Amino acid sequence: MNRKVFEINDVADQAVIRPIAVAYKDYTPDLFQQGVNNFFGNLRDVWSAVNSALQLKGAQTVELAGRVVVNTTVGVLGLIDVATPLDLNKHREDFGKTLGYWGVPSGPYLVLPFFGPSTLRDASGFVVDVELNPTFQDIRDVPLRNSLYVINAVDVRKGLLGVEDNLNAIALDKYSFIRDAYLQRRLYEIYDGNPPDTDEDE
Fold first, then answer.
1. What is the pTM of this model?
2. CA–CA separation, 45 and 55 (whole Å)
């Protein structure tokens, strides 16, 4: 099932999503692209701060909250990243990581339609992430909200263009490579870069 969904996602990506991302990268001013990336990054920082608090990471929560305040005010609603030069660093947190922090097992690997690699735990957390995303909660104008989601998706896809080229060059089985890389990366993230040793490592 995962391979079938992966193939469908890949076809849709190559036919529609990737060409749009390439056009966006090539024909949109760099300043505009950076502003879009900063704006959505600031929204993600809000939810990252909440999840950081749920994971009892006090200092990191304060740092993320500081990023949001500085970038939302001085950075003009997050369009300019003022916080990073002030050593207020970004930390990506989501509800899947929060569940993992509290011991919820990852469950089986899943490939979600359109959204790609996940696990049962992360897919459950993703539902919460979407429902509590500031763009979902605060914007009642449906066309505007959907437009923001599309712009964000295109911006995220643009950031993967270089990674995709490397992937195609080195991966004999693209599906297996992405699956293994995703699972290893999530394990690394959930343990904040210090995952426990496994029998295989030993």
1. 0.86
2. 15
